[in-house]
Structure formats: C-alpha cells, structure tokens
Amino acid sequence: MKLREMRRRMLVAAVLPVLLVVSFVVGAFSFSRVGELGEAHAQRAKLLLRQVSMASEFGLFSGNRASLQSAASAVKLEADVKSVRVYDVDAQLLVSAGAFTPLDAAQLRQTEFGVVVRKADRDVVAEPIYAVNIQLDDMFADRREPKVSTPKLLGYAVLEVSRSALAARERNVLLVSLAVGVIGVFLGGFFAARLGERVVQPILNVSRRIERIGQGDFSGRANVRAHDPLQELQDGLNQMAMRLTWGRDELEQRIVSATQELRQKKEEAELATQAKSKFLAAASHDLRQPTHALGMFIARLRQIELPADASQLVGRLEASVQAMQDFLDGLLDLSRLDAGVVQVQMRPLSVSELFTSVRTSLGQVAVDKGLYLRIRPCSVWVHSDPVLLQRMVMNLVHNALRYTERGTVLLCGRLVEQGRSLRIDVLDSGIGIAQTDHTRVFQEFVQLGNADREHSNGQGLGLNIVERTAALLGIGIALRSSLGCGTRFSLTVPLVVAPDVVSSSAGLPALVSLAGVKVLVVEDDILSLEAMRDLLDSWGCEVLAAASSAQATELLLRGHRVDLVVSDYRLGDDVDGLRLIAGLRALAGREIPACLMSGDTDAALMEKAKDAGLTLLHKPVRPAKLRSLMRHLLPVSQSAH
Ligand SMILES: Nc1ncnc2c1ncn2[C@@H]1O[C@H](COP(=O)(O)OP(=O)(O)OP(=O)(O)O)[C@@H](O)[C@H]1O
Ligand SMILES: [Mg+2]
Asked: Best of 435, 447, 469 to mutate for ligand 1, by most ligand atoms within 8 A of CB?
C-alpha cells in the first residue's frame, strides 16, 4: 500500500466516528429543542384562549356584547395574537378583534381545545365556553345526595396565534446546532487526525526505512522515542540494518581478498603459460632446424640409386621424418589459428575438383591398406576457402582411412537446407567412436586408441584443427558414430551457382624449369645450408651458398647475378632475412624473386613477411613445397635457361 493511501485511510478511520457521534448528538439536541418550542407555543395559545373563554363567560351568559368585545380586544393586544373571536352556541360570530380566517360550524364544534386550522404562519385554535356551575352553601339541603349537573355550553372562543416567532426560534436552534456540529466535527476531526498521525507517523517511518534497506541503504538509524508505539519494531530494524551492514562489509572484504587471490593465481598461471609457451616455441624452433636439414638430406638421398636394403632404410627414415613434419605442421596450424593470422579467401570452388584432389592424395593410402575409397561424383559449387576446405576434408578422409581396418570409406555430397547448402559426408565402416567421446575427440591432443602416444599414429590435432577452421569459415560440422558401427563426419557448406569458367586450372602459369636457375641460399645453420645446396644442386640449380648476410652481400658485390634468393629469417647477426632481401634488391637495383624460411612460428613474423610481400616457409620445409614455390616465384621467361 502506498504511504499516501495509508495516511488517507487512517484519517478516514479517525474522523468518521467523530462525525457520526457529533451528527447524532446535534440531531438529537435539535429535535428535542424544536419539540419543546412547539410545546411551549401550544401551551401559550391554550392559556390565551382560556383567558378569552373565562373573560367571555359572563358576556355570553348575560348577552353583553360590549363585555365580550373588551375581553377579545384585551387578548388581541398580545404581540403574537393575530385575531380573537367569540361565537355563540349556534356558531354565530358575536365579536371579533383583528383580521381572521373564516371557519365553518363543524370545525368549531369540537368538544375540547384544539388546533382547528394550521397554516405556515399561524395556528387557529378554538375552545368551547361553558357556564361555570357555582355551588352555593345551603345548610338545609339534603347532604346525603349531592346534586350532579352538566356544564352548559355558552359558545366558542377562537384565537389565531402567529407562528413566525416560533419559526424564528426553531431556525435559531437549528443554526446554533449546526454551528455546534461543525465546530464539534472540526475539533473532533482535528484531534482524531492528530491522534491518528501519531500512530501513522511511526508506521510511515518504519516503512520508509524498510524501503531504504530494500534498496541497499543500511546507513540510516531510526531515532527511537520513549513512547513510540513501534519502539520494538524500530529497535529491531536498527539491529537488522546494523547486522546487514556488518554482513555486507564482511562479504565485500571476502570478495576483495578472493579477487586478490584469484588475480594472483591468474598471474601465476599466466606466467606459467608464458614460460611454457616460451619453452615450446624454443623447443619447436630448435626441433624444426634439424628436421628441416634431415628432410632435405633424405630428399637428396632418395634421388641417389642405393642397394635395396639401404633404400628400404631410407624409406623408413623418410616415414619417420614425415611423421615429425606432420606434427610440426599441426602445431603450426594451431598457432596460426590461435594468433588469428589464418588468411581466409572465400570464393566459389568446384566440389568435383576438391574430391579429385582427395583421390589423388589419398587414393594410394587406401590401396596400401586394402580399403575401398569410394568417391561419389558431385558437380555443384560451394562458397568457401579452397585451401582450408580441402585441408579439412583431407583430414577427415585421412582419419577415416586410419581408423578403418576393412571395408569402405565413402566421400559424397548431398543437398540440404532446401538446396541452399551441400553436406559433405565422410563415412567409414571402421571402429567408430562411442557417444560419450563425441565432444572429447575434438579437443587437442586427444586420441582414443593411442594411450602410448605412438607418433606414427598422429598427435590428436587433426579434428581440433578441423573444428576451429570450420568455425573460422562458418561451416557446420557434425559427427554421427557409435562403437563398432563406423563413423560419419559431415561439413555443411553454402552452395553457389557455378561460375562461367572453362576450367579452374586455366590461366595458371606454365611450369618453369629450375635447371640453370641461379639461387642464392642464405642460412646460418651449416647443416641446413649443406642440405639445401645438395637438394637444389640435384634439381639443376646453380647454388650460391652464404652462411651470413655479409657473405650474401659480398657475393652480389663480386658481380654474381642471382635469379632467386632463399633466405633464413634468423641469420645470427644484426641483419635478419627481411632486411637482407631488401638490401640485396637495392644493391641489384631490381626486385629479385625471394622467399623466407624460418623455424619461428610466431605470429608477428608472419605479419612482417606478409607486409613485405614475401612468402614465409616454415621449417621443416617439404622439398616438394619449396620446389613449387620456386617455380611460382620465377618469371615464365626463366624457362629459357
Ligand atoms: N573416423 C574415425 N573413426 C574412429 N575414430 C576416429 C575417427 N576419426 C577420429 N577418431 C578418433 O578421434 C581421435 C582424434 O582424431 P584427430 O584427427 O584429432 O587425431 P589423430 O587422427 O589421432 O591425430 P592427427 O590427426 O593429429 O594425426 C583419434 O585419435 C581417434 O581416436
Ligand atoms: Mg587425424
């Protein structure tokens, strides 16, 4: 209830009884007073009439009109008497004084005194006049039988008395009563209201305090007076507010200390993470360097004719390095996704071409494992990033082949969402994934059947990269599988209308031969430098090897003409690969085609290379990738060499 409403109701409750009592008392007083005035008026009329009757008795008896007239005129002198009349026994008017209202005989012949006519301003009263029966003392009369005689009717006396004096008095009485009533109500109401206010005010105070406490303000304390009817409640409220204040202060204190503790723990955790990241980055860099050299040496070894058993050993060596490279590539993908530097280039892409490239890359893996890789033709186009989508599908098909021992792996597309999207399904008849692991398999480093972390079985990074790339491209990913019943991974990609192109490979630059191309390789790691020199040699390139930026500059100063520069980023001195390439270009006075290599995976370097317009190859660089990049960088005319 609102405070104003409460106050109003209290006022009504206090004033209403006063009003009723005063009205009743004033009403009763007025009623009785008006009654008394009426009675007094009637008595006076009766007395005056009696006076006329008694004064007229002799005149009537003796037939003396003069005596009758003087009796009537004497009574007429009274201020409130308007007229006096005397009638004989037959209702014939004998005398009158003052103007009068005519009366008929029937009205007169009433036996006793009474009002004959009542008008607004006057009363007409009449009374019969009897002869007085006077008993004379007669000593000789028989005392045993007293004589009884009836009084003799002599006539009628009629009087008209004015009511205006009575009406004025009645009016005065009413006015006085009204004034007394109003004053009574006013005073009563005033005192009742003040009394009510004494009760309401403390309630209002209490309710205001409760409202403030409800709004979280515990500061105010009620000033409790000795005779306050709500003293106990006010005391209770004060105590409650005090306890709430303590409680809040204590809670705030606890929150502050908990926040401090949390912040400290967070800082500790951040420091630990930073230390871990630093260690990982350093370890990964140090690992990339020799793996890079190893990859180059093995690639070179592959080109040499070796006895069968040595060739088999090289093959195994290659597989091990391949696994290591896969792991390092996975880590690189993750750090790129973490750093948000993955470049997305959305464009229409042919699903048919995508499927063909999957067959080309993984067809042999299926054959080697004795599995049937079935790829259903699909002629639609989708809107996505070709490189990233291909990597995702490859990853899923690779998993399907890895976790299927016999049977089929199927890659197909079907239209969904009323033909607005294509769902690319990768189905296998393999070991399946239990329902409880459906979320877990997408976490990094989670592998279900590789407790020993045998590295030839992967690292548990593939699905995590697929899921994060899907989120980046806005692709829906779904998994349906149960243990022993095969698996289906689905990617839902938006469809587009096939663009008007003859073939997506049209317009690609013609393949450039690397024979005779003068390549300047700058690398401070001697093993890597040797490996690169050997490999490039085997491709027919003329290699200029430099172990530092100074050596590289010197080679150019000596007048060597260079077609391509392949430089490491960290060169062990002040000048890094980026600055070296810029310096060499300035020295040569032309944009020598160049690329960077690095064992660093940090995002800032990727950004720098991108800004300088240079392709950055992360170590370990796969020979095939290096070769195709070199071909891409060289102008077509280079084939003339
Ligand atoms: N098609 C599948 N059938 C059965 N299990 C699968 C399938 N695909 C993935 N899994 C399970 O999910 C785990 C995680 O897969 P993920 O691709 O992330 O890692 P991985 O294949 O083990 O290693 P990586 O992909 O890094 O080479 C796998 O180890 C495997 O247990
Ligand atoms: Mg995998």
From this structure: 447
Find, among 231, 234, 101, 112, the residue nearest to 159 by Cα: 101
Distance CA 319, CA 493 (A): 34
Ligand 1 in reach of 461 Cβ (< 6 A): yes
**Can you name the CATH fold of 3-141+149-171?**
Beta-Lactamase (3.30.450)
431 lines ligand 1 (CB under 6 A): yes
Atom of ligand 1 nearest to the CA of 404: 3
Look at ligand 1, atom 31, and give the residue with the nearest C-alpha: 448
Residues 191-206 have a mean pLDDT of: 75
Tell me, in angstroms, the distance from the centre of ligand 1 to residue 434's CA.
Answer: 13
Which CATH code for domain 251-341+509-641? 3.40.50.2300
Closest ligand 1 atom to Cα of 398: 21
Spatial CB neighbours of 467, under 8 Å, sequence gap ≥ 6 = 442, 477
Alpha carbon distance, N-terminus to C-terminus of the chain: 99
Cα 148 from Cα 139, distance rounded (Å) = 17
Is 562:544 a contact under the CB 8 Å cutoff?
yes
Whether 462 is in the pocket of ligand 1, judged by its Cβ within 6 Å, is yes
Residue nearest to atom 28 of ligand 1 (CA): 447
Query: Virtual CA dihedral for 528, 529, 535, 541, nearest 10 degrees?
Result: 160
The residue whose CB lies within 8 Å of the most ligand 1 atoms, and thus the one to mutate among 371, 411, 427, 441, is 441
Mutate to test the pocket of ligand 1, among 445, 448, 463, 480 (most ligand atoms within 8 A of CB): 463
Q: Is the peptide bond before 151 cis (omega within 30 degrees of 0)?
A: no
Structure tokens at 256: 């502050």
Which range, 68-72, 228-232, 549-553, is most confident?
A: 549-553
Q: Could you tell me the residue ranges of all domains in the chain? A: 3-141+149-171, 251-341+509-641, 346-496
The answer to whether residue 338 scores a pLDDT higher than 80 is: no
Measured from the Cα of 458, ligand 1's closest atom is: 27
pLDDT value of residue 503: 46
List, for residues 421-463, the tens digit of each pLDDT value.
999 999 999 999 999 999 999 998 899 876 665 556 778 889 9
User: What pLDDT band is residue 258 in, cutting at 50, 70 and 90?
Assistant: very high
Give residue 506's pLDDT.
40
Name residues whose C-beta falls within 8 Å of residue 187's C-beta, 6 or more positions apart in sequence: none
Mean pLDDT score across all residues of the chain: 85
Q: Cα–Cα distance between 571 and 528 in angstroms, integer?
A: 12
One-letter identity of residue 81? V
CATH no. for 346-496: 3.30.565.10
CA of residue 471 to ligand 1 center, whole Å = 19
Nearest Cα residue to 524 out of 417, 598, 601: 598
Helices and strands, number each (H, E), in the chain: 14, 17
Distance from residue 426's CA to the centre of ligand 1 (Å): 13
Q: Strand pairing of 518-522 and 542-546?
A: parallel
Report the range of poorest mean pLDDT among 135-139, 375-379, 479-483: 135-139
CB 357 within 8 A of CB 327: no
Neighbours of 59 (CB within 10 A): 23
Angstrom distance (rounded) from CA 264 to CA 170? 96
CB 332, CB 601: distance < 8 Å:
yes
CA 321 to ligand 2 centroid distance, Å? 17
Question: How remote is the CA of residue 459 from the centroid of ligand 2, in Å?
Answer: 8
Is any atom of ligand 1 closer than 6 Å to the C-beta of 556?
no
Contact 462, 399 (CB under 8 A): yes
